[in-house]
Amino acid sequence: xxxxxxxxxxxxxxxxxxxxxxxxxxxxxxxxxxxxxxxxxxxxxxxxxxxxxxxxxxxxxxxxxxxxxxxxxxxxxxxxxxxxxxxxxxxxxxxxxxxxxxxxxxxxxxxxxxxxxxxxxxxxxxxxxxxxxxxxxxxxxxxxxxxxxxxxxxxxxxxxxxxxxxxxxxxxxxxxxxxxxxxxxxxxxxxxxxxxxxxxxxxxxxxxxxxxxxxxxxxxxxxxxxxxxxxxxxxxxxxxxxxxxxxxxxxxxxxxxxxxxxxxxxxxxxxxxxxxxxxxxxxxxxxxxxxxxxxxxxxxxxxxxxxxxxxxxxxxxxxxxxxxxxxxxxxxxxxxxxxxxxxxxxxxxxxxxxxxxxxxxxxxxxxxxxxxxxxxxxxxxxxxxxxxxxxxxxxxxxxxxxxxxxxxxxxxxxxxxxxxxxxxxxxxxxxxxxxxxxxxxxxxxxxxxxxxxxxxxxxxxxxxxxxxxxxxxx
Length: 474
Hints:
Largest sheet: 5 strands, parallel
Strand order of the largest sheet: 2-1-3-4-5
Strand content: 5-15%
Shape: extended
Radius of gyration: 31 Å
Number of strands: 16
């Protein structure tokens, strides 16, 4: 049986001793004479539950309650007071107090109140354990080492706990928008509910409405006698992912807007309003701002869907993730095809990094699948990736007819150079030269910062920092 820890914060020694006598056999107690010592101890010791007097010397109980709820929003705090002050009760409840106990403390009432708090703790922990198990078994895999991936993970963790907030995911085809949506679902309070993905571009306009909202029995010729649930109804108590939402018809947009505003919808051929609870995550690879300006997408629906927006960078914008993703897909397809490939040749690695992925992660995945399927050695080589080396361009691997970028030339010979009579600012000259070479590196790598940094033998993050700094100073 789980033994819970209770922090008791009260300036009266008799109260602390009495609570220790009543609760000590059932719970682990940590006793504090003031809020300051309790708050300081929170750094190293996090209790499951807090019993705290309101009228503490120094930092008062209300102020300490605010500190606790700010650091640990889910921690139950039961306030102890010698008199029933309605205004104080209201203020404490607004700050998140779990309940109140009046002095003199009634032991039976105290045990009932603590029992309720412990039950809520147990329920929260049970949900957390379920979610952790769900994530271990179902979490979409994010592979990568780039700053972009870190930013994406931070975004997911930030928005997942707000299940009522619609989210719009923007990005090119193949960047993993559905993967992001699944990760948001897996970390949200509705993780145990269904995740229903709908590709709005996959249905003809005349069918999309009935697929999305469902239809009543006999709604139209060929309809099922028992009617049909739509995707929205199937997503009840879960997450509805609307991929390519920009392809919704004007009628579909109007109905979706009504649903987003009040959670109600009507099935095709019906007059009964249905109410469901579901989180809506949308995605598109189109320019919604332009579509709104051209009046091809409703402005009111745009604002309703885009409460939170996330822009997913293309694979070409995060080249540091190409090799980690390639290795992940390699081992994934090893298992699928019963192979035991161990990696890639150096030429294959170089070729993957220099390749322009128009299909993003999806293209890379398909490329690795083909390579694993046809490979006959332990290491995947360039031809098995469907790429070739242009031997005429030198030792560096390139993609098909694409020429390898030439090396940046060293600093020119300055023996014949003479300083002007008035002298010159060496710092400005160095900054101008650094900016010129960084600009040249970006030009030769078609704006790829990671490749430009490698050309200049710099760390990627250092390159990005210096480039932004130099541009600000110009």
